[in-house]
């Protein structure tokens, strides 16, 4: 999780063998068009014998230029689609649930929104089309001067509107033909430490809009740590820091995230990283046998510890109504002592009482994790935890249904990624070598670049620079780019936004499209500037 006590391994160039399977792009018979995402310089097509549609006077189309690139494009002959003065967005008959997506697209393209009426020339029609494909897949068809975006779920239709918006921004046109698109990984996002650095609700909402255009679907919110607790509380107002988000602001953030098809993943880290909570409850702070306080650490042998944390979990699982909850579980300092049992005999005694004579403190910590998972799961949450909260060779195994968020191979209890995968665990990639943007760059961290992510990282690169074997790919659910506030004054929120802009775009590309990108880094960066209006 937090890199405050980690150290960054030296980088190495990832070989081309690390790339995942190259995306297949479908072309009409006889076409010699290039791959999706190619540059404008290579976009002029050669003459083709493909059957003209609607007329031979148009060259064969090329794929739309977007970030991330589309997975498949079937080329066709025709003028494509451009927004015009009479253009509008409509939803297919009986598809009124797509009204939010339709209104947003119409606003962005500066055309009319006409609702549930028949499409006419120049229109964009949105439709739910039950059938094959994942909920985030979509088909975008351009023909006869119209666009039709359909998918099995609202999320897929929404991503189709992002493709249309980006293509129009990049080149003024959505090319003729058909796009069939889908993500490579189901979890794709940004992780934000709002505990150590306060961000306003408006700043977070701006990141949500940015993420949505990149087809990212998760925002992790780490809102409790040693430095601060940043969301208003009704059950324990004493733990809340002066600068914080109100519940009304959080609900506003959640409402926008829902409209943009982004899942917010909240995190209250425990039993470590609880300094802000413990300042208000000092009697629950862990002490060693010599009486030394363990910074940020909860004394999990005290029944009051579970009561306090579970009350907070109960309150915030009501506020956050999404499908995931992050339990933290990393960097419990008791386990970093040279002799944990001697340093913290109360924890050792509690472990033996609960789990038997052969148990140790890591078993007590694992039991704590399992117990907190049992609190959030009945509330409809899929639990997650950092990889260094899972330990080998213990009496108590960690619940197999807790998703592993892999960030480091350098902390106590950290294990090689393949160990988790062999156990059948599902893993999300937050590799601190590539995906950690740590304010102030402590402990040998450097601000990651989009270029390095784009050229060297893939979802298989979970630790350091070496990918795990491709046979484990199905258990790697995706990844998130993470911003941590170790030295919160090192950058302003505006500087953070600028600093993560290209890394976030590179991460989005690598999580949506498997394989080596078709564009060079310079081409990708130029396309991003064109889409964003900064070039």
Provide keyphrases for this structure:
7-stranded mixed β-sheet, about 525 residues, alpha/beta
Describe the structure.
With 535 residues, the protein is an alpha/beta fold. Helix content is 29%, strand content 18%. It has 13 helices and 18 strands. The chain has helices spanning 99-109, 154-171, 201-213, 247-259, 275-280, 303-319, 340-343, 345-355, 361-376, 417-422, 450-456, 493-512, 521-532; strands spanning 72-75, 88-91, 112-115, 124-128, 138-143, 146-151, 177-181, 187-193, 218-224, 263-270, 285-287, 293-298, 324-328, 382-386, 403-406, 427-429, 436-438, 476-484. Strands 8-9-10-13-14-15-16-18 form an 8-stranded parallel β-barrel, surrounded by 4 helices. Strand 15 (403-406), helix 10 and strand 16 (427-429) form a beta-alpha-beta unit. The longest helix is centred in the C-terminal third of the chain and has 20 residues, at 493-512. It is elongated and about 85 Å long.
Q: Average pLDDT across residues?
A: 91
**How far apart lie the N and C ends?**
35 Å
Shape: elongated
Number of helices: 13
The residue ranges in which pLDDT falls below 50 over 5 or more consecutive positions are 4-52
Q: Quick one: biggest sheet?
A: 8 strands, parallel, barrel
